[in-house]
Design a protein that fits this description.
The chain is α+β, with helices and mostly antiparallel strands. The chain has 3 domains: about 110 residues, Beta-Lactamase, CATH 3.30.450.20; about 70 residues; about 160 residues, Histidine kinase-like ATPase, C-terminal domain (Heat Shock Protein 90). It has 11 helices and 13 strands. Strand 11 and strand 12 form a beta hairpin. Helix 8 crosses helix 9 and helix 9 runs antiparallel to helix 11. The protein starts with a helix and ends with a strand.
Length: about 350
């Protein structure tokens, strides 16, 4: 059934995906926004059943129940698997339409991936900034007494007559130095990036070579590069350090046998936080290890948070800080068998012509 022509123009210009199913949950109508969401044309989709279009059994069952009972339902942030590598998050409202001799189901879906992503990115950026302030304050409070402690131990060592007693002062000095080094690592790099045009694939190849020589023979590092990616303005050493931290983590996650994939793509008109960039490089570091525990996921970019007993919990915060200084961001998505760290880097983070401030 086609909607009345009076309303058809309005419905077809909505950004909300609108689908109309008959009493057998076969698709009778969809607007252009729904075609975009489902990534297929109306000619291909019309007549298909809801389970075929929206392959989520609980969701299909909910649609069938709403049609049978006549009660509408709304679900927020529903994740739909629309293909092997395509997953979308939507807010859904299903409304039964009942007339004498006819029952239909109107389904409205609003894709919220972008809003959720921007909210998540803002949270990561705010978390990183807050952590940096807290750590710098903590470092200041630690460094002052630490310097006094080390100096007093040195003075005491000069006055002690016995080498056996001096061994204790050397331990104090050594542990003070170790604590100082830990504080410095928590602070991360103090130097601003020395930006110059760099090739992201040369950086990835350098990282791959460094890691490949250290991993067991059962670990494969695959490459999936987009050769059309232009040079990015960045500090080569800092970018190598950031990505090296990610790839080393992936290598430790897969253990003796596994696969790591380094993948590059470009994103156009992409927003990081509140800033929209004309062109952004996306670097994915993917491993098929056991995944990150859910209780760790929300805090993996905080200092001293790690899922490994031998880990220091400093690699990811340092990597995030380095990428933040380049106007970018690191995100993470993890489940057993598939963990992906995504580095987002603006091609020209300082070029005002390539950026604009925007609100989601």
């Amino acid at each position: 059934m086609q909607p009345p022509s009076l309303y058809q123009g309005v419905i077809e210009n909505l950004h909300t995906a609108v689908l109309l199913f008959d009493d057998a949950l076969r698709l009778r109508y969809l607007n252009p926004a729904a075609e975009m969401l489902l990534a297929a044309s109306a000619a291909r989709l019309l007549g298909a059943g809801a389970p075929q279009l929206l392959p989520s059994k609980p969701f299909s069952n909910a649609l069938a129940e709403a049609l049978a009972s006549g009660h509408p339902f709304t679900e927020r942030e529903l994740v739909l698997e629309l293909g092997p590598e395509r997953r979308v998050t939507v807010d859904v409202t299903a409304t039964p339409l009942t007339e004498p001799g006819r029952r239909e189901l109107l389904v409205e879906m609003t894709q919220v991936d972008r809003q959720l992503r921007i909210t998540r990115e803002e949270g990561l950026l705010a978390q990183t900034a807050t952590t940096r302030v807290l750590v710098r304050g903590l470092a200041h409070e630690i460094n002052n007494p630490l310097g006094g402690l080390r100096g007093a131990a040195q003075l005491l060592e000069r006055e002690l007559p016995s080498e056996a007693l001096k061994e204790y002062t050397r331990i104090i000095i050594s542990e003070a130095d170790r604590l100082q080094n830990l504080v410095n690592r928590m602070l991360g790099p103090n130097a601003l990036p020395k930006r110059q045009p760099v090739n992201i694939h040369e950086i990835l190849e350098r990282v791959r070579q460094l890691v490949q020589t250290a991993v067991p023979s059962g670990v494969r590092i695959e490459r999936d590069y987009d050769p059309s990616i232009p040079e990015v303005m960045g500090d080569q050493d800092q970018l190598i350090q950031a990505i090296l931290n990610l790839v080393r983590n992936a290598a430790q996650a897969v253990g003796e046998h596994g696969e790591i994939v380094l993948r590059t793509r470009t994103l156009r008109q992409y927003t990081i936080g509140h800033t929209r960039h004309k062109l952004v490089i996306r670097v994915d570091v993917i491993d098929n290890g056991p995944g990150i525990p859910p209780e760790v996921m929300e805090a993996i970019f905080l200092p001293m948070v790690t899922g490994r007993p031998e880990g220091t919990g400093l690699g990811l915060p340092i990597a995030q800080s380095l990428i933040n200084q380049h106007g970018g961001l690191i995100e993470c998505d993890s489940q057993p068998g598939h963990t992906m760290f995504t580095v987002l880097l603006p091609i020209n983070p300082e070029g005002g012509k390539n950026e604009s401030r925007t609100r989601a």
